[in-house]
Design a protein that fits this description.
single chain; mainly beta; Immunoglobulin-like; 5-stranded mixed sheet; 3-stranded antiparallel sheet; 8 strands; about 5% helix; about 45% strand; elongated
Length: about 130
């Protein structure tokens, strides 16, 4: 779903301890509707909006990635990243995000269907 090339999201971290965000764009260049889920290496320091959803064929959507910045740039030695999992939408249809269908989306369906793919987006931290 994501474009080719380096997949990094840059967080320009200010000295004050306040949450910051960076937006990424997901592109679905295929002729089939896709569903996606974004996971991160730490739910304590990151947030994702929306964490899952649908992308129509040949369309794009924006995802906002938040760095909570409670302790500044992470010094835990880990390479933090976001993983974007995607697969074809069930029956190739778009689903209403307000419906109860979204709850089992990646808990039940993904257990039975093979995921189409995954893209990794590295988190890069720069002092502002």
């Amino acid at each position: 779903i994501a474009k080719e090339g380096p997949r990094n999201v840059v967080f320009k971290v200010p000295s004050e301890k306040k949450p910051i965000w960076s937006d990424i764009k997901l592109e679905n260049p295929t002729s089939e509707n896709k569903t996606f889920k974004v996971k991160c290496t730490s739910a304590v320091i990151f947030r994702v909006q929306p964490p899952f959803g649908f992308i129509k064929a040949n369309d794009t959507t924006n995802i906002r990635l938040w760095f909570q910045n409670t302790d500044g740039i992470p010094t835990d030695g880990k390479k933090h990243y976001f993983a974007i999992y995607f697969m074809n939408s069930q029956d190739g249809k778009e689903h209403d995000s307000s419906s109860t269908y979204k709850i089992p989306l990646f808990t039940e369906i993904a257990r039975y269907l093979a995921l189409t793919g995954v893209h990794r987006v590295n988190a890069v931290f720069e002092k502002e």
